Amino acid sequence: MPNLSDRELMDIVSRAITRHNPWWIHQRTIEERFSENPNAVLRSLPSYGNRRSEYLMAIRRHLLEYYSSYDRDIGELSRTYWGLDKVWYPNLFYVLREDLMKNITPPAILTLRGPRQVGKTTLIKLLIIELLSLRLLKHIEETDFRTTHYRKILYFPCDVLMGGREELLHVLTDFIDRASRVPGKEPIMIFLDEVSSLRGWQEVVKVLYDDGSLDNAILLATGSHSLDVKMSSEVLAGRRGNVEKSKAGPDSVLLPMKFSEYVKLLSEELRRVSYGGRWLELDLRVNTLLSLARGEVNERLLELEYFLGELRRLLDNYIVTGGIVRAVREYDGRGFIPDVVYKDYADLVVKDAERWRLSERNLRKTLYAILLTMGSPVSARTLARKVGLTHQTIEKYLDYLEYSYAILQLYRLDLNKRVPEYRKARKIYFIDPFIMHALDAWVHGYSEVFEEALKSLRERRPLITECVVASHLARLALTATRSPLRLVEGAVYYWRHDSGEVDFIFKLKGEYIPVEVGSSKKASRTLLRLSRTLKKRGILAGHFDKIRVRGQVVQIPIEILLLLA
Known about the structure:
The chain is of the alpha/beta class. It is built from 24 helices and 13 strands. The strands form two sheets. It has an eight-stranded mixed sheet with strand order 7-6-8-9-10-11-13-12, sandwiched between helices. The longest helix has 33 residues. The model has no long low-confidence stretch (mean pLDDT 90).
């Protein structure tokens, strides 16, 4: 690129800002037309059982269709096989919507993290569309959600910056100045995407917070690595603002869709059942699992037994695609996942590792060792001996993979002290089946990745299913306590004794629940023993046709357990 003056650089950035915020230009016309004739938008209402929700869904769809011509990300969404008929609204969308538009008041600094390609940018765009939709809804319906003027909303992808943090400071001060001159007391909403690509972004936010520029602003920054969150907490200590009422917490995480979200997206019939039974609500799922551990089966839970055939078909597909939207969409539409989908994810993981000054070769060796030992108790020294590295190097790369939301590390539970035994061997699982398939292909250099993934499923299905259960239990336990994923060792454990091993113990509301995953119709003696020690029914998840309470154990179809987790 030729040398450019500061003025030329800022002109390029200014054009990029306008391109990424098309609502500044178009929303006024949309609002004027809607106020004159709302029926033009509301003539085809979805059936949802609630008029306000039906109006909001119709308005959302109208705005998504309109902005698909002006916004690159929404446009790409509309041009996929699904188009705008199937849009993944993760559970976190509804939590963040309530935080941004009801619970939190300015100033507030939030972060959103998650693995590569999980859909963070799409989530941000959906939140912005929601802000714009609620402004239109207020023309015809009352709502307790707060919104803001469209010229007070900024979306900015930090990876377009060429001038570093000084350029970011200029962009934000210029926008805040313009937004502050828009009439009204509504808050300024700032969405900074992929801040991990810009070193020192925290210092820019700190300067603006300290000089009062963010007094009327809510800022949400996204990134792909939780090490960046740790740095943010240190630099921005005491400068996060009014985040104490946030349901998601100041540092939320978007992970690949869970099985319940997968079912909701792909099965209209089960979506109606889940909505009608409110199975997606966190408190209900937690209380239902706690009741199962007491041997009590919620009658409404039995309704799900009628759908086991469909649930099993969906789980078969889920362990192929995982919860990465791009993979789910390709498999649903084309019946296979192109190699480039796997390659793109793996390449980004490697690129991020290089940015943290990690060796591609050592990353490959560490992943090779993990794939050899996945699901078995193993020490860092054992992993190191398998690939010729030091245990200190292995620990360093395990930390990177955990902070990148690729793996989970579970430790053995000390039953007496109820703490993880860090000096004992740990069990390592991948956070998502697709992530496992993609990194497995990168390690081994597969050319036909989808075929190799299917082969792996045939050979290792029980282990991959165990991996899915581990991830779901960890995510449920941590969501229930609003703890970050990296603290999984305080929420999910395994247990081992001379008599055998129990796959998992997960902690909910201070109670410890043992879980065994497998094809056996009978619980192991170790599970029975541990259940008596913990004074809880052990949960045996497998290929069952119904939920049964048998003595000290509750048998449950694994598909239903995953819906609850």
